Automatic annotation (TrEMBL):
PROSITE patterns named among the record's database cross-references: HEXAPEP_TRANSFERASES
Record has Nucleotidyltransferase as a keyword: no
Residue ranges annotated for the Maltose/galactoside acetyltransferase domain, each copy included: 6-60
Keyword Repeat tagged: yes
Function: Acetyltransferase implicated in the O-acetylation of Nod factors.
One GO cellular component, as annotated: cytosol
Xref: Gene3D superfamilies: Hexapeptide repeat proteins (2.160.10.10)
Identification of the protein by name: Nodulation protein L
GO MF annotations in UniProt: acetyltransferase activity; O-acyltransferase activity
Parts forming coiled coils: none
Keywords: Acyltransferase, Nodulation, Repeat, Transferase
Superkingdom per UniProt: Bacteria
InterPro entries: Hexapep, Hexapep_transf_CS, Hexapeptide_acetyltransf, Mac_dom, Trimer_LpxA-like_sf
Species of origin: Aquincola agrisoli
Length: 182
């Protein structure tokens, strides 16, 4: 039996985001984002309830300050006491996980969505994902970008404005474009 585009997406295989099932998922997420991004005046507990009812997993004490943007939401797993500041973007076509106690400055982007390098394949409208994993007690500074397939180890620091193109070992500090040990 042939796999659906959603099944292919979740497996990190090429898929079409124009698939009707995925378009319905995107539309439902956009409606949720509109509600969540209008919730800044609500208390933390109410926003946490909204997050935990929509994202794949949300640990106790986690805060995501609106506005927030993601593709689907169900592939995002946030540990306990995670803090994500304003204007975070998580492209979650596959799993994006963030460990307990991790903090992110404003404008951080975790990008699991990727595209074929071959132009002919891109013209077919195919894309794929590579999981992003952020460990426990990580600090990611404002405006940093974490690219598809990258893992950041526990206790690491990513300087503001960095573009993380490869894995970061536990306890390391990286900065720059591309991010390198500081």
């Amino acid at each position: 039996m042939e796999r659906t585009h959603k099944q292919r997406m979740l497996a990190g295989e090429p898929y079409s985001a124009e698939d009707p099932e995925l378009q319905r998922e995107l539309a439902a997420n956009e409606a949720w984002l509109a509600r969540y991004n209008a919730s800044l005046a609500l208390g933390r507990a109410q926003r946490w309830q909204m997050l935990s009812g929509h994202l794949g997993a949300v640990g106790a004490g986690t805060q995501v300050r609106p506005p927030f943007h993601c593709d689907y939401g169900f592939n995002i797993r946030l540990g306990a006491n995670v803090f994500i500041n304003f204007n975070c973007v998580i492209l979650d076509v596959v799993e994006v996980s963030v460990g307990d106690g991790t903090q992110m400055g404003p404008g951080v982007q975790l990008l699991a969505a990727d595209h074929p390098r071959d132009a002919a394949t891109r013209r077919q409208g195919l894309e794929f994902g590579r999981p992003v994993r952020v460990g426990r007690d990580v600090w990611i500074g404002a405006g940093a970008l974490v690219l598809p397939g990258v893992s950041i180890g526990d206790g690491a620091l990513v300087a503001a404005g960095s573009i993380v193109t490869r894995d970061v070992p536990a306890g390391a500090t990286v900065k720059g474009n591309p991010a390198r040990p500081a």
